[in-house]
Write a structure and sequence with these properties.
Largest sheet: 11 strands, mixed
Structural class: alpha+beta
Number of strands: 15
Shape: globular
Distance between the termini: 33 Å
Order of helices and strands: EHHEEEEEHEHEHEHEEEHEHEHE
């Protein structure tokens, strides 16, 4: 089999692979495919790779533009995702070959770094491919209204209270690395995201802290409010603590949810202290974070990498 860059003639077969694997509706996935990879924001930046045998597509792997800002400087970083090998071609090492393709010198893919959030099944393949796993996102939870949440829809109340999201740019001047929070990136993500999301903005003087969240239903009755993003303009512990207290108070005042959850890099000490200060407790669940490339090579201290659940393409 050959490993090649994606071409438009492969599109129907790639769509069909995902439809067969995940049971999604073909027209819906084709629209998602277009919005995700072929928008002006991604065009010329994302990399799609396929494994083919003649005119038969046997695998697909993508690296999409997911800009990280480090010390206020935007980097050309890509997130790995939407990896799939056709059942007829599994067991032949195609996934590893597609991962390798981006690093071959003759292909001239000059990126600052790669990041990923693999599931358990693919994690070992990435590690064998010399990706590093500097930390995992740690989940924290806080009970809110376990009983009241049984009798009302949190989504209905949140929609009434918060309304649609607005694209925002938030910059911090401190030495933290994080996924860019900009109107341009928001606009791109808003176009393909499925489901309902809300935002809450806490302000204190000239500082702001953005929360983005959604509802996830567990076991038919648990209404979990998942905080995907906490984007502060300042990493002062007192400021972020006040922001979490303000957000929690607003949710308790307007909505009945069973619990709130937040996943972040546990090496960022300000978050671990804020979690303790605001009544969130650590649970035995985490999300793999992996990286490779220039960024991984020159980064030795990962305690200033503000990576969260909302930074994953599936948010």
């Amino acid at each position: 089999m050959e490993i090649l860059p994606y071409q438009d003639w492969m599109r129907p077969q790639v769509i069909a692979m995902f439809v067969d694997e995940y049971g999604v509706i073909a027209d819906d996935f084709e629209k998602l495919f277009t919005d995700f990879y072929e928008s002006a924001f991604q065009k010329g930046k994302c990399i799609r790779i396929v494994a083919v045998e003649g005119d038969k597509v046997g695998g697909f792997q993508s690296f999409f533009y997911w800009p990280i800002s480090i010390n206020g400087e935007k980097k050309y970083t890509l997130q790995s995702g939407n990896s799939l090998v056709h059942p007829d071609f599994r067991g032949k090492g195609l996934f590893a070959k597609m991962l390798d393709y981006i690093h071959l010198p003759e292909n001239n893919y000059n990126v600052d770094g790669l990041i990923g959030f693999p599931v358990q099944m693919s994690y070992n393949s990435f590690i064998r491919n010399k990706w590093s796993n500097p930390f995992n996102l740690q989940w924290y939870v806080k009970p809110i209204n376990p009983l009241l949440s049984l009798f009302s829809s949190a989504e209905d109340k949140l929609s009434q209270q918060f309304g649609p999201r607005k694209a925002m740019t938030i910059v911090n001047s401190e030495t933290f690395a994080r996924i860019e929070q900009s109107e341009a990136f928001d606009g791109y993500r808003f176009a393909f995201q499925q489901g309902t999301y809300w935002r809450y903005l806490f302000t204190q003087g000239e500082e702001t802290c953005l929360f983005e969240f959604k509802i996830q239903i567990r076991k038919k009755w648990i209404q979990e409010l998942v905080i995907g993003k906490c984007v502060p303009s300042s990493y002062d512990e007192s400021f972020i603590t006040k922001a979490f207290f303000s957000f929690t108070k607003e949710i308790q005042r307007t909505t009945s949810v069973t619990l709130m959850s937040f996943a972040c890099n546990p090496l960022v000490s300000v978050y671990t202290r804020v979690m303790r200060n605001t009544g969130f407790r650590k649970i035995d669940k985490s999300i793999y974070f992996i990286t490779k490339g220039k960024i991984a090579n020159y980064t030795t201290d990962w305690s200033n990498w503000d990576i969260q659940r909302g930074d994953i393409d599936t948010w």
